[in-house]
Structure formats: structure tokens, C-alpha cells
Inverse folding.
């Protein structure tokens, strides 16, 4: 991890150039979307992101939330919870049953900042792994409301839209991985997708690739390659994502970060 706050390296560029990197900037649409059915690569990119944020923010200077939709029978279930432990920065890995309340709290903070009712400008990062398995993120009806018992409450999907639409200019950023465009459509409609201007694609069909970046380029990827595209740029960039860090290397990184304080 290197660079300014909110920047992280995704992997080695295939072309002869610096490693592929992205930055969170306080402008509209500056959220990150990963799409593709390569679970471990998506997990490695989540780990890369968390490492970079912890390396670049001193303890207490950033809020980091993780929603992990990995199913219990998956070999990597609990990985992000274990990964988050031991950093001097607090990473809150939200339990599945607490996702709705966490969404509501983050959305409330975004609204308060927008109205000038909050003077807290602390960068806030929401990392969502396997969004297709987190039901509280989904759009529930045309009005963004769901019925919980006898009460009609704002749905998680409506809170999520508030966060992704209004958050980036207020230093609240989202990174989300979803396995397929079909499942992605259950979380974000066409308008919602426009809030994700930084996109990472794994190997997929020409149609899916064209839908997401107006190019069939992701259909030509190998299994250990990905495409990164800033929608403000003209061309996608092919790169080799980094793998999961070894326990020994990760332990050493945490040790050094704790020594640095």
C-alpha cells in the first residue's frame, strides 16, 4: 500500500508501467464496483483495500466498515473478520443481522454532513464483499420502503442509495463486489450504478462486459487478470491482481503499523 490517503494499488499492470492503482476522491460517483465470479480474487482485492487504508490513516482518523456476505460453508468464511483483527485502526466487521442498522447509521451521518448538522469530516469507508448475498442491500419496492412487523421503515436499499449517491463528496466512500450483473441489478438500478465510477471487472461474457464498461474487453481476460476502468477515462486497464497475503507477511505488517501507532 502506498500513495495519498484513500489510494491503493490493485496489482501489477500488464503493460510496462507503474502498478495499477485507484484513488478515492471527494467527488460524486467516486465509489468502486467489482463484478465477476472470482471469489478469491475479489477477497484479495478487499484485503488489499483494507491494508492500504490502515497504512494511510493513523488510528482514529478514519472509519472503516466491512459487510461480508461470504456463506458459512465457504472455505473463506470468517477470513475478513480474522484479517481485520490486530490493526491499530479499528475495522468494524458488521454482523449480518446488524447490516440494516449500520446502513441507517452511515446514511444518517451522510445526511447530517450534507445539511451541515455534522462537523465530522472523518473519511468513512464501507467495504462490501459478496453483495449478492446481503439481502438488506436490495431495493425492496419503488418507494424504498419495507415493512418490518407493523411499522413501515426506510429500507436498507434506500439507505444504501443515500450513501453511494451523496457520500463521496462528503468523504464517505463505498467499495462493493457482486458476482454477476444480474445479481447486481437487485442491489442497484441503472441510476444507482452511475454512482460507481471506478470499476473492476473479472472474466465475463461480452454482453456483460459491454453493459458495465461499454466494451467487450473483459471477455478476453484470462483467469488471473482483471480490468480497471475509471469511467472518466477512455480505456480500461488490464492488470494482474495481487493474491491473498500470507499469514506471516500480514503479521509483520500489523506489527509495524502498531509500532508506528
Amino acid at each position: 500500500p502506498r500513495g495519498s490517503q484513500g489510494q491503493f494499488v490493485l496489482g501489477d499492470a500488464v503493460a510496462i508501467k507503474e502498478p495499477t492503482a485507484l484513488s478515492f476522491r471527494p467527488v460524486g460517483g467516486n465509489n468502486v464496483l467489482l463484478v465477476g465470479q472470482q471469489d478469491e480474487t475479489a477477497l484479495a482485492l478487499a484485503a488489499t483495500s483494507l491494508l492500504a487504508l490502515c497504512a494511510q490513516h493513523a488510528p482514529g482518523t478514519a472509519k472503516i466498515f466491512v459487510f461480508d456476505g461470504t456463506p458459512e460453508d465457504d472455505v473463506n468464511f470468517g477470513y475478513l473478520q480474522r484479517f481485520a483483527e490486530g490493526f491499530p485502526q479499528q475495522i468494524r466487521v458488521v454482523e449480518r443481522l446488524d447490516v440494516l442498522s449500520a446502513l441507517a447509521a452511515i446514511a444518517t451521518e451522510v445526511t447530517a454532513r450534507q445539511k451541515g448538522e455534522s462537523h465530522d469530516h472523518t473519511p468513512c469507508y464501507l467495504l462490501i464483499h459478496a453483495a449478492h448475498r446481503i439481502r438488506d442491500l436490495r431495493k425492496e419496492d419503488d418507494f424504498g420502503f419495507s415493512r418490518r412487523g407493523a411499522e413501515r421503515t426506510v429500507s436498507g436499499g434506500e439507505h444504501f442509495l443515500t450513501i453511494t449517491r451523496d457520500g463521496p463528496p462528503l468523504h464517505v466512500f463505498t467499495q462493493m463486489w457482486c458476482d454477476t450483473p444480474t445479481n447486481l441489478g437487485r442491489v442497484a438500478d441503472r441510476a444507482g450504478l452511475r454512482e460507481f465510477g471506478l470499476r473492476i471487472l473479472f472474466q465475463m461474457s461480452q454482453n456483460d462486459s459491454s453493459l458495465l464498461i461499454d466494451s467487450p474487453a473483459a471477455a478476453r481476460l484470462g483467469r488471473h487478470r482483471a480490468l480497471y476502468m475509471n469511467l472518466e477515462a477512455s480505456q480500461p486497464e488490464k492488470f494482474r491482481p495481487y493474491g491473498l497475503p500470507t499469514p506471516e507477511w500480514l503479521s509483520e505488517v500489523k506489527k509495524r503499523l502498531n509500532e508506528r501507532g
Notes: Residues 229 and 236 are 4 Å apart (CA to CA). The longest strand covers residues 7-13. DSSP finds eight helices and twelve strands in the chain. The helical segments are 39-56, 79-84, 99-115, 156-166, 181-187, 190-193, 206-213, 247-260.
